[in-house]
Write a structure and sequence with these properties.
The chain is mainly α. The chain is built from ten helices and no strands.
Length: 372
C-alpha cells in the first residue's frame, strides 16, 4: 500500500513539474513573440519613414545629386527647419503647455463636480471626495507616459527603437538597390520584373496617401487653431498643433484631440464647452465631406468601413504603433491583393475571350528558312 502511494506521489510530482515547465515555456514564448511583434512594427515604421524620405531624395537624384548626398541634405534641412520652428514657437508652446498643465486639474475637478450635481438632480449619489491637484495630474501623466514607453520594455529597447527609426530610413533612402535587390532574389528569375513592378506601385500608393494625409493634417491643424483662438480656449496654438498631429491617425486621433479642449473649456464656462464641441464637429465634417474627398480622390483612398475596422483591430492588438500603421498596412495589402489576385483573375477571365476571338481567323502559314 505504501509503495502504491509512493508511486502515485512520484507521478503527481512529475505531472506538477511538467505543468510548471510548460507554463514557463509558454510564458517565454509569449515574451519572445511580443518582442518580435514590437520589432516588426518598428521595422514597418522605419520602412514608412524610408518611403517618405525617398521622395525628396529621388527628386534630387534626378538632378544629378548622389543618393547619399541627397539623403544627408534632406536630413540636415529637416533638422534646420525643426530647429528654426522650435526657436520661433518653443517659447509660446512652452508657456501654453505650462498653462495647460496648471489648468487641466481644475478643469477635471469642475467636470467631476458638475457630473455629481447632475447625478444628484436625478436622485443619484456619486461617492468619492477630493479633486485633482497638479501633483495628482503629473502622477497620472507619468503613469500614462510610462505605459507608452513600456511598449519598448526599457531604456535599452527604447534606444534600439530610436536607432532603427533613424538609421534604417536614411540607409534605405540613400542606398535602396542593395535591399531591394536582396529581397527580389527570393523570387524566381522570371518573376523578378513583376515583383519590382509591384514594389514600385506599393511605394507610389504610400507616397500618394502620405501627401494626402500631410495636407489633411495641415488643414485640420490650422482650422483648429483659429477656432480655439476665436472661442477663447487657453493654449489655442498648442492644442491646434496637437490636433493636426493626431489627425494622422484616423478615427482615434480626432476623438483624442477633442478631449483636452473640451476639458479646458469647463474653466471658461458651459457656453465655451458648447462652442468647442460645435467647432470640432464642424471641423470633422469639413474634413470628412470636403477636404478628404478633394485630396484623397487624387491619392490612395480606402473605404471608411475598412479604415474603421483596420484601425480598431490593429490598435487593440498592438496599441499606439498599431493604430499609426493601420492605414498604411491596409493600403499595402489592398495594392498587393489588386496586383497579385484581382489582376490574375481578370487576365484568366479575358484569356478565353481572346482565344475565342482568334478561332475565326485563319492561321497564317509560317515561313520557313527554305521558303525565304
Amino acid at each position: 500500500m505504501g509503495r502504491t502511494r509512493g508511486i502515485s506521489a512520484a507521478f503527481l510530482d512529475r505531472g506538477l513539474l511538467r505543468a510548471v515547465l510548460l507554463a514557463f515555456a509558454l510564458f517565454l514564448a509569449y515574451r519572445f513573440l511580443a518582442q518580435v511583434a514590437t520589432m516588426v512594427l518598428l521595422l514597418a515604421a522605419a520602412l514608412l519613414l524610408a518611403v517618405i524620405l525617398s521622395a525628396p531624395v529621388e527628386a534630387l537624384h534626378r538632378r544629378n545629386v548622389s543618393r547619399a548626398l541627397a539623403a544627408a541634405l534632406i536630413v540636415l534641412c529637416t533638422l534646420a527647419v525643426l530647429g528654426l520652428s522650435g526657436y520661433l514657437l518653443l517659447p509660446t508652446l512652452t508657456r501654453q503647455a505650462a498653462q495647460l498643465a496648471s489648468d487641466l486639474p481644475g478643469a477635471l475637478t469642475q467636470l467631476i463636480e458638475r457630473v455629481r450635481e447632475l447625478a444628484r438632480g436625478y436622485g443619484f449619489q456619486v461617492g468619492g471626495g477630493g479633486g485633482f491637484s497638479a501633483s495628482t495630474f503629473s502622477n497620472v501623466a507619468g503613469q500614462v507616459l510610462g505605459g507608452a514607453l513600456g511598449l519598448f520594455g526599457g531604456l535599452a529597447s527604447l534606444f534600439t527603437a530610436v536607432l532603427i527609426l533613424t538609421i534604417v530610413p536614411i540607409y534605405l533612402a540613400a542606398q535602396p538597390e542593395p535591399a531591394v535587390g536582396w529581397f527580389i532574389r527570393f523570387f524566381p528569375p522570371d518573376r523578378r520584373d513583376r515583383v519590382r513592378e509591384v514594389l514600385s506601385k506599393v511605394r507610389s500608393g504610400l507616397l500618394l496617401w502620405l501627401k494626402g494625409r500631410i495636407a489633411d493634417m495641415a488643414i485640420v491643424g490650422i482650422l483648429s487653431t483659429v477656432a480655439l483662438y476665436l472661442i477663447g480656449v487657453p493654449g489655442a496654438l498648442f492644442l491646434g498643433i496637437l490636433t493636426g498631429l493626431l489627425a494622422f491617425v484616423p478615427l482615434v486621433g480626432s476623438i483624442v484631440s477633442a478631449i483636452p479642449p473640451l476639458l479646458l473649456a469647463f474653466v471658461v464656462g458651459p457656453t465655451t464647452v458648447l462652442w468647442v464641441l460645435v467647432a470640432y464637429v464642424a471641423i470633422q465634417q469639413i474634413e470628412g465631406n470636403l477636404v478628404e474627398p478633394l485630396i484623397m480622390q487624387k491619392t490612395a483612398s480606402l473605404h471608411p468601413a475598412a479604415v474603421v475596422t483596420v484601425v480598431t483591430v490593429l490598435g487593440a492588438a498592438f496599441g499606439v504603433l498599431g493604430s499609426i500603421l493601420a492605414v498604411p498596412s491596409a493600403i499595402v495589402a489592398a495594392i498587393l491583393v489588386k496586383e497579385l489576385w484581382f489582376r490574375r483573375l481578370e487576365e484568366a477571365r479575358n484569356e478565353p475571350n481572346r482565344n475565342a476571338g482568334n478561332e475565326g481567323t485563319p492561321e497564317k502559314p509560317r515561313q520557313t528558312v527554305r521558303d525565304a
